[in-house]
Amino acid sequence: MIKRKFALAYLIAAVYGCLFSDLLYAQGVSYKEWSAKVTAALPDKSTDAITVESFGAVGDQVADDTKAFQAAFTYARDHGLSVVELGSGKKYRISESINIDYRGKGQLERKGVQVNGNGASIFLAVKGGNRGYFAFNILTDARPQQNTKFNINNIWFFTDNVNRPNGIYNSYACFTSINNCVFYQLATAVKFDYAGMCRFNDCYFWGCVDGIKTYRCKDSYIDGCHAYSCDKAFTLEGVNNAGSDGNVCIVNSVANASTQYNLKMKGLYTPMIANCVFEQSPMNMSIQSSQFGKMSNVFCGPGNVEFVSSGRDFSNDYWNIANLDAQGKVAFNGLKFSNVTGFKVHGVGSGNNPANAAVQLNNCDEVNFSALTVRDSRDRLAYALSIAPNCGSITISNLIADRSIYLQGNANQRPGRFIVSSAIINGGVVSEDKRFKPTEIFEYINSGSNTFFSNKPGSK
Fold first, then answer.
1. According to the model, what pLDDT value does residue 455 have?
2. Which of 13-17, 123-127, 262-266, 302-306 shows the lowest per-residue confidence on average (mean pLDDT)?
3. Residues 6+ positions from 70 with CB-CB distance below 8 Å
4. For a designed S-S bond to 267, which of 28, 232, 240, 295 qualifies (C-beta 3.0 to 4.6 A apart)?
5. What is the DSSP letter of 41?
6. Domain that holds residue 460
């Protein structure tokens, strides 16, 4: 009796096995392929990794992989997994935002996701006219210092250069890094709001409207990034609130051929710019109402540099600028309590230059210039330096200028305390009223007559 039961069970299993095999065969899937797919859907327990293919992604740039990506990130969040893998060499197509959504989870503690692109690319298509979505949309609750960690690595994001959706958005998530990614012809490649301790490493931005755009972020770091032919390469903005928007560094980076500007910093505390090249843009650098900044070893090719002040209480205070080489007009507006050393300016044109000067000072106070060289401009401008009447306590030492220094306004308008020493100036110092205050002291060699002149009391 027992032998008959085993025989019957074996017969039923064999029949169902044959039927299941026939079903798989009819669908064009072998048992081996089916088994491998099911096994792949399970996370790797050694790494907590899942693949987007496990959730149905194809990666041929034809099939829409949006739902597969969203399912993978949702599964990782709900099961406490930390790694999402893309297939090497795959070209995924998405048409809506992929939400990496941790809202409603409260204060996150040491959680997050790492996306390993493995050299794959993502094509941002448009569905239902939605051009404004972000490929990856990192969302957390609006809480200070969210202890999250999101890393996105080694992915190429691109569009058809017609619809132009966006790349990566992050709101509030701290410790987020974007590494070795390419953003090609997007609208906004990367946008971070209210985030902290974030990094952008070795990324490339080609033909985007905005490369990196941050608002009210702090302790952020841009290292080794390159923006080419964007409208606005790097835009870093705060509201000048004594430390909450700042500690922002951009180092070892390049931006060129931007149609509007290469770098704009606005309302930041303790920003730093070091070892960078910005060139071939109408505005290479625009620094607005930012304080306690440091700039060193920066080359600006064709294009202008400006420091902009939005009012008395929002000037550019306490800057240390060393080794700035500018091939375009430099306008210091609202620069105060600052030091500028190793400063070279050349190749300035007369276009958009009503002051007719290579270097222009306006509303500047207590600024020391040292080792300043202003070479002849291509349009033979009238002045090397033009100094507005509202400037005072300006010292310039070790100056070589191929044009004269121009003091705007009359003696009653100028606050004075203006000293030039150890200088060679072709054309000397020119004032509108041909008179100087006692506090306006000049020492220079008139290269035209090779004679020394000083208006110091007791000088000969």
1. 52
2. 13-17
3. 98, 99
4. 240
5. H
6. 346-460
pTM of the predicted model as reported, rounded to 2 decimal places: 0.85
C-alpha to C-alpha distance for 122 and 59, rounded to whole angstroms: 9
Is 19 domain-assigned?
A: no
pLDDT, one tens digit per residue, over 270-286 is: 999 999 999 999 999 99
Q: Is 20 helix (H, G, I), strand (E, B) or coil?
A: helix
Angstrom CA distances, 395 to 110, 391, 444, stand at 52, 11, 13
- Computed over its alpha carbons, how large is the radius of gyration of the chain? 31
**Assigned domain for 402 exists:** yes
Torsion angle in degrees (nearest 10) through CA of 116, 121, 122, 124: 150
In a domain, 366, yes or no: yes
Is 320 part of any domain?
no
Decide: helix, strand or coil at residue 144: coil
DSSP 315-372: -EES-EEEEEEEES-EEEESEEEEEEEEEEE----STT-TT-EEEEEES-EEEEEEEE
What is the total count of domains within the chain? 1
